Amino acid sequence: MKFVFLILIFCGLFISCEEEHKPEDIQAPDWTTEKSTELNKRFAQEEEIGIRLYLKQRPQWKMTETGSGLRYWIYEDYEGPVAELDDFVDVAFEVRLLDDSLVYESGRNEVSTFKVDKSDVETGVQEGIKYLSEGDKAKFIIPSHLAHGLLGDQHKIPPLQVLVVDIELKKIKKQ
Fold this sequence. Notes:
alpha+beta
């Protein structure tokens, strides 16, 4: 008798749960281009506040802001040609979030090589590298729209994260 009673309770729960989630009861969200634009503006404003607070704690960083929102500071500046479209560059780097947590770095005495403007490296790094000469060391603050955006990198960088990149341009290989 107890067994039958338990089966009846289980069936009742199963049926009631199933009834609550009928496909015809689910309504499509009321989403518009205007709502999406407004949400993106809010994300950008929150990022800007976070970047300003971060920089306020680092007054020695003399950042230059580009039209895209990238901020860069070349703290070791050498004379020479800058990296250009289609050059291959060797870089050493460290990537952090605004909370200073380390997410990526090149190993000690290791370099990463990529083709300027022709690789899957973050747009902000692609833009910033073109300000650097061989031997330069710089800090980039890259807003999420120039980094990994709404999805993050689906590994170590969460969605909508500003990146702080410390980068050294070791070598430029002209084409």
